[in-house]
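Trying the structure run again after the queue cleared.
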Amino acid sequence: LWIHCNASGNSGGGRGGGPAAAAFLLNNCPTSFLSKATATTTTISPSPFKLHNFTPTSASRKMKMVMMTNNQHDANTVTTDNNQNEQLPYNKELFNQYATVMEEVLQSRRVLRNIKEEDIQMVSKYLLQNKQYSSTTTTTNYSQMTEGELRSNIAKSKDTYLTQTQLTPAQYKLALMALTYMGDYCAKKRVSIPLLVAWYIVKDGGMILRDKAYGTYLYVLSSIDRNNNGVSAAPLKGEEEEERTRVAEEVATIHDILFQPDEKTLSVRVKNMVKRGDEHGAMELLSSVSTGNQELKQRTYLPILQSYCAKGNIDCALKLYKNMYDQKSVIFEADEQALFIASVAKAGYFRNDSNPVKGAEEIGYSPAHGTQFFDRLVSDMANDVLEISSSAALKLYHAFKVGFHDAMDLSDDVVSLTKKKDEMEGTTTATEGDIQEEEEETLVLNNKQANHDELVVSRVKVNRTTAICQRTNATLRLIMLEEEQGQQLHDTLIQMADAQYEAFEAKNKAKKPKIRKEGGVGSNDNKGSDDPHFAGKQLSNFVDWVNTREGEPFTAIVDGANVAYFGQGHVDYLQLKLMVETLENMNENPLVIMPQKYTNSKFRVSSKFLQKLTPEDLEIIEGFEAKGQLFKVPALCLDDYYWMLASVSDQTVSRNGTNIDVPTDNDDGRWPGIRPMLISNDQMRDHKLELLEPRLFRRWCSSHIVNYSVKNNKTEISFFAADFFSREIQGNPTPAPFSLSGQEESGNGATAWHFPVSDWDNHERLCIRIPYH
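Done. Tokens:
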């Protein structure tokens, strides 16, 4: 085999010699022989991108590589002093890209620090030479090796490398450091091709990188595809991409043998196994390794789930989905949830006349088909996902169209739109002649009332004041914080207040010492306290005051600083007064939350601007106080926490057990919705991730916050009311159908699910309802 691989091609064909004979041997030799024989063939003639790692799994692929090398003899050979052609071990073009980067690495301060000049020259000689010194580590199936076997294999390569290069231990260490830093350099410059050669040199030299260095190599090889300028390069083609993918898997495999496997390395290995069609092997890998305290994420499992779904293997997909769903570390993305549900729909399992999914009952799904099965899966989805994309909505529509192909006609719900497309890839502008048209499908609004036994998969618009879906007559709900979630918000705000106050105090003490005085809630002489829990106690006292005060309950909490500053460069009390009077005219009882600083006769708005309140301003403040409409937030305490907490306080005494929310059919003409409402344009970007998880934060915002604008030269205020129904996935019963006698039948109709879609209008939803019969 070795002789035939080195021989020139046999022009006469047949089995006389050269590649044709090599092909015959490769296709007819047993695997046990090939696993040994390839150790010899790989040192002879690697292809441009299959640099070394021939494996005995595909004889035809090996033959292709051998023949490619013969055809590319001129591009990858050099002429020695004896005029003998010598095959280069690495593709010349790729090696030049590697050498360019390595030269810069070897000149960097990080490498040159405290290094002798002769050591740099010696290491440069070998790292910049297109030559291979060892073949020990280039032909092994690493996934089948133990750690001891791998370390022994690497040690042999190191011995061979040091024997042939005569590098000293210090020089070898320098070479290892340069190859390690090269990973960081390629990550910074966003280039990946040079690391293909660098990785083979790491193996050729029998080098073991640090744990994090393997991670850097893996990151670059598996995620970066860009040129030196950071501009998107053309996608890698054919063997380049295949080689980069294979090397990334090899890096991950070796890392997992030498070190503790982690989520990143397992993700790469799983992805490549799925590409080869080995979903079962990928699942076995995940179940057989330990990642210590590191939990697996969605991306680790996702390639397997996507492959199952693409192949229509719903039995395995459902088991994997359930496994993922039960793990707290797996956070499902919206489109991936929609993909799974679409795959089940496409396979017809949501039909009431279908067979159940095999094995589903054993993992807790009963029934495992029909309307109730759909309701269960979407209910699970609603716990993780707030909204879906329009492309996901379209996938769901087409999936139901296939799964219910003989039952319902959904053709009226989708149209094709003509869209202009920029023909020039990678550009944001186009010249005349570069524009072409393409057809793009989209769902169109369908508010026509459906029959009670009709499958509905439609884009609908929900009435913003009644919350009714005209297509199904289902009424959407405003989903609010539950009692324990409101308590969670309360407790979190107290903790955040203490942490914020402690940070303020530390900052002030670093500037200059201050004399501190104790003060009561909202008192003007309060300058702070040495008590680290001062802010939390003050906030708790505020809540007690709100809950125990007598009089009419507050129905509107005003973020005073936000309103007074809106559109101004200073605190404008006339604008704040306009807000309070407008709310009073709407039959609301407002409470203004204002930092104490802004109620003083003078204060700094910025380092360059000292504002002095006018007599009129002071009169407005006194008027608020006289009517009990102003609360002053103590110094060094953040006012945001006060108006946030006021929105979920019980107002126990003033409310006296009554519900202060406003119904839709009220006689006063007031806005329907939750009370108290919160008047602010603050986006709360600094708080939302600390307060609540996204779903609960959205529930709180959508049910309480009312935005505003000031118009007509500060003489009029308009409001943007809080939501009357929640913008999250929800299922609601449709009215029961009527009998032939005209009487409503007992019980409810099927559940209508409404999905908010991120790039549709605010009150539009994807509505899906599967009738029971």
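The two ends are 69 Å apart (CA to CA). Worth checking whether this holds up in the mutant runs.
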